[in-house]
Amino acid sequence: MSKLLRKISFVLILMVVLSFGLVGCQKNSELQTIRLVEVTHSLFYTPQYVAINQGFFEEEGLKIELLNGKGADKVMTSLLSDEAEIGFMGPEASVYVYNQGRDNYVINFAQLTQRDGSFLVGREKDDNFTFDKLKGKTVIGGRKGGMPEMTLEYVIKNHGLEIGRDVDVRTDIQFDVMAGAFVAGEGDYVALFEPVAATLEKEGKGYVVASIGEEGGYLPYTCYSATKEYIEKNPDIIQKFTNAIYKGMVWVQEHNSEEIADAVMPQFPDTDKDVLISLIERYRDQDSWKPDLIITEEGLDHMMNIMELAGELDQRADYNKIVTTEFAKKAMK
Which one of 85, 139, 144, 236 counts the least CB within 10 Å of its CB? Predict the structure, then answer.
């Protein structure tokens, strides 16, 4: 081959390589960034992290900027102040906002988890724990009016104990520092999400004695929501987002615990793989992740029953106002 032909071939190859690179850059630039604020960063939300790490959002043309709100109140503030497009939290927050009479209230469009994801942690290992052992004890429960704290109270009351008389449930410690407060000596028990509870077990600083999720029954516990105005203006984005979440839920159903652990490890780099596997199995055993995005009226009613029992709800919100099933139904077809 002559020098001229070699040069021409080199130029053609270079042009092909560059064109592929430009296509890739163009494809990435076309992704629309969505700020998603989650109530906390927990293995309980495994299908969401699978959807992110497996590229399901990119398939829908979206890029997720994931932020930890550290509490439903802060997630709601982010939505109402336009600091985020989509919030991920308990739907109780949308009930509070709707009852304030706001025009641009928040609507829940898909559920991810269908029961409470917290575990009751004690200071001693107790394979024969019963809730009557809480009598005369103090439990660190979380923010007053938050779904984790209200579900905890609901479970305690269902076991015949009276809050304030038989059991002291503390609501003065912020959600993200509850584990630290417990380790420092506050309370006799604490309600924690994973992998925090397992971390305490591994360090010998606390032991899971009961599942609040198993005791609390079906609830649309954590859901995706956006303001009424945003959903009306961006139905295509909400649909794409919902599609990606559903893909993540189905993927989790179709893969084993080890494969799931591999998929979520980038989100939990400080947690050993064997711990991730055991926690994934713990959540799967209590049926936390059914691939069903639809928030039912029955489920929302149960949640509002719990809110009323906790003394946090004076007026029920209209299911048809704060819930839409349109996007979930399309994603599940």
Answer: 236
